[in-house]
Design brief:
It holds the Pfam family DUF2805. The protein is mainly alpha-helical. The protein has helices spanning 9-20, 26-33, 37-47, 50-60, and strands at 86-87, 90-91. The model has no long low-confidence stretch (mean pLDDT 76).
């Protein structure tokens, strides 16, 4: 991976979680962690089992919601009521 900084295990877990989420764009990951789409793909390849990586790639390829420019919507992102407030990947205290 060609990242400028070393990622912690917590960062890697969060990136993987965001990559699996349908409505989290690669642009969001770039903004929070500085990883481009190809770098996210490389991270997923190295951190996941081969079968899980193939399943993720199949799921993500061609998905409009993963790319900001391909989305049909601009606002109205779904957020679960159980999800804590997240601000630039830092979970706020209740």
């Amino acid at each position: 991976m060609t990242t400028k900084k070393e990622l912690t295990d917590i960062d890697k877990d969060r990136i993987i979680e965001m990559a699996w989420e349908d409505r989290t764009t690669f642009d969001s990951i770039l903004m929070q962690f500085g990883l481009k789409e190809q770098e996210v793909i490389d991270l997923m390849r190295t951190e996941m089992k081969p079968s899980s990586f193939r399943m993720w790639r199949e799921r993500v390829q061609g998905r409009k919601t993963k790319h900001e420019k391909l989305r049909d919507f601009r606002e109205g992102r779904f957020k679960c009521t159980m999800q804590r407030q997240i601000n630039n990947n830092k979970i706020s205290k209740r």
